[in-house]
Amino acid sequence: MPALRVLVVDDSEDDALLDVLALRRQGYEIEYERVDTAEDMRQRLNKAQWDVVLSDFSMPNFSAIEALQIFQEGSFPIPFIVVTGTIGEESAVAMMKAGVNDFVLKTHLKRLPTVVERELRESDTRAAKFRAEAALRESQERYELAITGANDGLWDWNIRDNTIYLSPRWKAMLGYTEDELQNIPSESWLALAHPDEVPLLRAKLVQHMKGESPHFEAEHRMCHKDGNWRWMLTRGIALIDPETQQAYRMAGSLTDITERKRAEEQLLYDALHDGLTGLANRALFTDFLGFSLGHSQRDPNYLCAVLCLNLERFRYINDSFGHGIGDQILKITAERLASVRRGGDVVARFGGDEFAILLDDIDDANDAKLFTEQMLTEVAKPIHVEGHEVYPGARVGIALSSSGYTHPEEMIRDADTAMHRAKSQGRAKYEIFDRAMHGTMLRALKMEQEIRRALDSHEFLPFYQPIVDLCSGKVAAFEALVRWKKATGELVSPAEFIPLAEELGLINQIGQQMLQMACAQISTWQKDFPAEALQISVNLSGKQFNQPDLVDQVDRAVAEAGIDAQFLELEITESILMENTDAIVEMLQRFRERGIRILMDDFGTGYSSLSYLHRFPSNVLKIDGSFVRRMGDDTGSHEIVRTIVLLGHNLGMKVIAEGVETFEQYSMLKSMDCDYAQGYHIAKPMPADQATTFITQRNLGL
């Protein structure tokens, strides 16, 4: 991630730090300054170049509204994002129309990096908008300066005899010749105006002729001779008879402002739509959802739903094929979503691979489920781009208005929470939000804080489970399994923190610490047991392979421990290989070149195992424990294990059987000529000191 210079408008240093931490959490290098007064903000804006402005909405002596006004004075082509605790619907809509790029609730700061990344990617678009707006302002000024020039039409209304003179230029702008529209009555002029705007024109004319306004000015549409409507700016001033105080003459100009109006409409469209797909953006979606929630409060029988969805493996697609292919997939996905929506529904893109759908006026939750299933079927169809076939797929979270929402952002937040639940569960393609998920989200936030603190305190420790040679019965290696031992002595199950750590990207730091400690332990055992040649295997998460410096991390850990790389083993699951095959295979080859052995864990549980196995540079297969545990009762499992052993040996690979829990299983594996065994029958995972004792007792018989 690049370095970012962030100007934070907030009266609380703590809140500013939370904003910064949310960005650093995603890998940004942050330089920031905090301001909380108008004077300080002007000074900082003009003295330094910033990449983004983050502003609180309401402060004791300042506000986001004032901050936005100061920001807009300088026409800075950077994002202005409001980060706030709460904000009313009307205020939010007003701020978006005034120029705020997006809102992030302080209770949902995990959205901040995504919003910032999206807005930075669209900075060129914003810069273009600023240039367009500047050109538009310049154009308006030219029109004002040239009001009496030859390019404007002139008109002169003799009120006493009710005839209007129209100049040749006035007529030409509406497609008429000089001979047409000669001294027409005022009613004929008004007949050319758009019917919807005639009442306002009459009211403004009367107001000015009564002396209640200094001049007459109106923007309105007029019918061109070809039948099309043109936007016009009509200006004029009346002459008043001093004796009767009645207007007797009025003259002015006509300016064609059609192009300016089109530019304004385009700017408004751009402010409310996604530039890549043309779908509604978050601001417009939130407006529509606000209307729907208002309807639900007036009509207890009305029900709507919000669907939040993320594409699966989109990051891998971008990394593998580039952003050009990624953008094509986003466009195709947008078209597919738009094709399945019903009348009254709204489809939006929030940024990146985040989409949302507002289902209007549904009967019950089953309607939302049925629509979601149909939509997912459409989205999952293969996409062919530049010779590649991609299967995007999606995970969806659903929130229903029956939960009594009053603020659109709350409903969007809960749909997003349900979507993340669907992603973390890995089973269902969609989840419907319930209140229990809110509690789960809060617990996850607390767990995140504790994980970060535990990383700083080095509370994550490797526990070592022995792997024994089935021929000799001696310990040949250990698998390093991460355990979280809190300062209180409490052990936290990996099932509780690993999924969250992977979602947050913190698994990379945990994995790095495990790697360093495992290498240090290898060094210790080499000194204590020089004749044993003990190896330690370390698990690598799929997230760790997203790090371009993973090989360098392993090299540093080996060098710092002063060990031979052949005593280090790296375990991966076959499902990881399916994510980004070519890139991961290349990385594994580099490990093999260093003498590091590669273990394929959980073999037999993935897909396309046999057809892909020959491509991957593995040294060892680890048979999944689910097959081993069923060997005594299930003939099929017994044959699967025997087949994997034979397959591994035929490919020149060693085989380890996991999950060995009984002597019977141990004996059966030995009879199959399986090389190694691991499981509770041999020993549970244990701290390093206990593992040292185990080696002494098992291998040395002391």
From TrEMBL:
<dbReference type="InterPro" id="IPR000700">
    <property type="entry name" value="PAS-assoc_C"/>
</dbReference>
<feature type="modified residue" description="4-aspartylphosphate">
    <location>
        <position position="56"/>
    </location>
</feature>
<dbReference type="InterPro" id="IPR035965">
    <property type="entry name" value="PAS-like_dom_sf"/>
</dbReference>
<feature type="domain" description="EAL">
    <location>
        <begin position="444"/>
        <end position="699"/>
    </location>
</feature>
<dbReference type="InterPro" id="IPR001610">
    <property type="entry name" value="PAC"/>
</dbReference>
<protein>
    <submittedName>
        <fullName>EAL domain-containing protein</fullName>
    </submittedName>
</protein>
<feature type="domain" description="GGDEF">
    <location>
        <begin position="302"/>
        <end position="435"/>
    </location>
</feature>
<dbReference type="InterPro" id="IPR052155">
    <property type="entry name" value="Biofilm_reg_signaling"/>
</dbReference>
<dbReference type="InterPro" id="IPR000160">
    <property type="entry name" value="GGDEF_dom"/>
</dbReference>
<dbReference type="InterPro" id="IPR001633">
    <property type="entry name" value="EAL_dom"/>
</dbReference>
<keyword id="KW-0597">Phosphoprotein</keyword>
<dbReference type="InterPro" id="IPR001789">
    <property type="entry name" value="Sig_transdc_resp-reg_receiver"/>
</dbReference>
<feature type="domain" description="PAC">
    <location>
        <begin position="216"/>
        <end position="269"/>
    </location>
</feature>
<dbReference type="InterPro" id="IPR013655">
    <property type="entry name" value="PAS_fold_3"/>
</dbReference>
<dbReference type="Pfam" id="PF00072">
    <property type="entry name" value="Response_reg"/>
</dbReference>
<dbReference type="InterPro" id="IPR011006">
    <property type="entry name" value="CheY-like_superfamily"/>
</dbReference>
<dbReference type="InterPro" id="IPR035919">
    <property type="entry name" value="EAL_sf"/>
</dbReference>
<dbReference type="InterPro" id="IPR043128">
    <property type="entry name" value="Rev_trsase/Diguanyl_cyclase"/>
</dbReference>
<dbReference type="Pfam" id="PF00563">
    <property type="entry name" value="EAL"/>
</dbReference>
<dbReference type="InterPro" id="IPR029787">
    <property type="entry name" value="Nucleotide_cyclase"/>
</dbReference>
<dbReference type="InterPro" id="IPR000014">
    <property type="entry name" value="PAS"/>
</dbReference>
<dbReference type="Pfam" id="PF00990">
    <property type="entry name" value="GGDEF"/>
</dbReference>
<dbReference type="Pfam" id="PF08447">
    <property type="entry name" value="PAS_3"/>
</dbReference>
<feature type="domain" description="PAS">
    <location>
        <begin position="139"/>
        <end position="212"/>
    </location>
</feature>
<feature type="domain" description="Response regulatory">
    <location>
        <begin position="5"/>
        <end position="121"/>
    </location>
</feature>
